[in-house]
Design brief:
361 residues, alpha/beta, Rossmann fold, 7-stranded mixed sheet, 11 helices, 18 strands, ADH-like_N, oxidoreductase, EC 1.1.1.306, metal-binding, MycoS_dep_FDH
């Protein structure tokens, strides 16, 4: 039977979000209804609200979530009713070009539920990243559910569903950081701070955090940074070189995503070093670099989409690292809020006073 639940929707570009009643249909073949436990307030949700992703309003916001499987549709075998899961937006198809090459982390045809969640008047909702988890229940494709064991704090491990995974994955999967390497991270918001934690987890010995905010730099130190640079009063390229014996870092991660920070990342890496772009640029941004410099410096220039993660592989491993005390996911939970507090959480995000506000349902 279908369900009526409370949820947060964005009805129009830049309009305040609303808490309303929505309809959750029965799961179809390959689909799952999940009782949502927690959902982080991510920048991507704000982009949906502001019209930066599309205009398919109304949007059902929220995607960085944990929950418990409540119902399963025909043919679902990867999860069962009662399983605790982290939701993801990379439900691999197993058949596209990337999957056929043994690279499912780049799947080009990821799945979403086909049945539609609606407003009470029947208006179809567009779920954020195919999830829509600022709701008491949500409907997703079975492949969007990654089962996890244990009793780890849902608010903490749920952040692996998007931002924290993007940062850790940029360090470990895309940057391929190795033990003993030097790493610089430009931009210490939620994703950049997660990249610092990922660099520490991978065994980097010199980890340089760069930001304009001393408060964010202090948090970065708590999560593994060995050096901090306030780029408002210090040239970050010179500071990164000084901290690495004059050479530059082996890996530089740009977690901001503007031409100025990318250029800083490019020139602050060692010869044959790696640059990883995980900050999301605006569509109108352009980058200019001397092509001879690109050739002469060698190495690689990479972009990282969702931390190049494979949820079925990475989520359980990182939850276990958290349970073993090697990954401090608790530090990313700045506050726990209710479903009616999301507009205020967006304001705090804009002011940079939180890493993550987490809605507890």
């Amino acid at each position: 039977m279908s369900h009526k639940v409370r949820a947060v929707v964005s009805r129009a570009k830049d309009a305040p979000v609303e808490t309303v009643t929505i309809n959750i249909p029965d799961p179809g073949p390959g689909e799952v209804v999940v009782d949502v436990l927690t959902c982080g307030v991510c920048h991507t949700d704000l982009h949906y609200k502001l019209g930066g992703i599309g205009d398919e309003y109304p949007y059902l916001l929220g995607h960085e979530a944990t929950g418990v499987v409540a119902e399963i549709g025909e043919g679902v075998t990867n999860v069962a009713v009662g399983d605790r899961v982290i939701l993801n937006w990379r439900a691999v198809c197993g058949q596209c070009r990337a999957c056929a090459k043994g690279q499912p982390q780049y799947c080009f045809d990821t799945a979403n539920a086909t049945r539609k969640m609606t407003l009470e008047d029947g208006t179809e909702l567009s779920p954020a990243l195919g999830i829509g988890a600022f709701a008491e229940k949500t409907l997703v494709a079975a492949g969007q559910c990654t089962r996890i064991d244990g009793d780890a704090d849902a608010a903490a491990v749920g952040l692996l569903g998007c931002g924290v995974m993007a940062g850790i994955g940029a360090a470990i999967n895309t940057g391929e950081i190795r033990r003993g390497e030097s790493v610089a991270v430009i931009g210490c918001g939620g994703v950049g701070t997660a990249a610092i934690a990922g660099a520490q987890l991978a065994g980097a010995t010199t980890i340089i955090a760069v930001d304009l905010d001393d408060g964010k730099l202090a948090t970065a130190r708590k999560l593994g940074a060995t050096h901090t640079v306030n780029s408002g009063d210090t040239d970050p390229v010179a500071a990164i070189r000084e901290a690495t014996g004059g050479f530059g870092a082996d890996v530089v991660i740009d977690a901001v995503g503007i031409p100025e920070t990318y250029e800083q990342a490019f020139y602050s890496r060692d010869l044959a070093g790696r640059v990883v772009l995980v900050g999301v640029p605006n569509p109108d941004m352009k980058l200019e670099l001397p092509l001879l410099d690109v050739f002469a410096r060698g190495g690689s220039l990479k972009s990282s989409w969702y931390g190049d993660c494979l949820p079925s592989r990475d989520f359980p491993m990182l939850v276990e690292q958290y349970r073993l005390g090697r990954l401090d996911l608790d530090a990313f939970v700045s506050e726990r809020i209710g479903i009616d507090d999301i507009e205020e959480a967006f304001d705090k995000m804009g002011s940079g006073t939180v890493l993550r506000s987490v809605v507890e349902l």
